[in-house]
Design brief:
225 residues; alpha/beta; 4-stranded parallel beta sheet; globular
């Protein structure tokens, strides 16, 4: 019997960070994921733009042995949903509404759907999104996220795209469930760069993600309740 999937939203709510891995070197991508997990990151997305992405997802899922929730990103087609699920992905991430969204819903997989405008946010929520990936978040920044939360107070947002160490706290204070970080977090590690430096960046991101004031944490819990 397949083991029950962990609660993605609860894990993101607690740890506040989604690591996004994409690269040209499959071995380096696997090593990047394992180094992130060792540093304390426990939700990771492997983009399908990564070379040999299905094998990378499978290797990470097997090597992590339940220490992290592994998902697949840039998933656009129903066929890709089935492929990544078979490889071991426990959640799906899309850049927009696509045929992959209904396929993920049909399989019962948690789904992060990319959206930017209010119309796209509403469509993503109606389409079965577990949370909305605000993408690219850098277009409007934390102030734009805060404005979106006024008409959509019940939607969980995860800003992705240009989220660096200098903006993590601002996004969380604006009401983000968590932040998604790719190259500002992983750097050149998916291409064979230093894993030691990756660990330092990961610990810095974790510290920022989990280090908001008690007042901010209490407000976030009210938003998510």
């Amino acid at each position: 019997m397949e083991q029950a999937s962990p609660n993605l939203l609860a894990t993101l709510r607690e740890n506040r960070l989604l690591a996004i891995i994409r690269g040209t070197n499959p071995d380096a991508c696997v090593n990047t994921a394992l180094a992130l997990i060792q540093a304390g990151v426990n939700v990771l997305e492997v983009s399908l733009t990564t070379n040999d992405a299905l094998a990378v997802i499978s290797r990470i899922a097997e090597a992590s042995e339940g220490q992290a929730i592994i998902g697949a990103g840039t998933v656009l087609t129903a066929g890709q949903v089935h492929d990544v699920h078979e490889a071991g992905a426990k959640f799906i991430v899309t850049p927009c509404l696509a045929p992959s969204t209904q396929a993920a819903v049909d399989l019962g997989l948690p789904l992060l759907v990319g959206a930017l405008t209010p119309a796209e946010v509403y469509a993503a929520a109606c389409g079965g999104a577990t949370a909305v990936k605000l993408f690219p978040a850098s277009v409007g920044g934390p102030a734009y996220l805060k404005a979106l939360r006024d008409p959509f107070p019940d939607i969980s947002f995860i800003p992705v795209g240009g989220v660096g160490r200098d903006s993590v706290t601002d996004y969380l204070r604006a009401g983000a469930l968590a932040v998604g970080a790719g190259s500002p977090l992983t750097g050149d590690a998916p291409r064979g760069g230093s894993l030691a430096e990756l660990g330092e960046r990961a610990r810095a991101f974790i510290g920022l993600a989990q280090g908001e004031s008690g007042e901010t944490r209490e407000a976030r819990q009210l938003w998510m309740s």
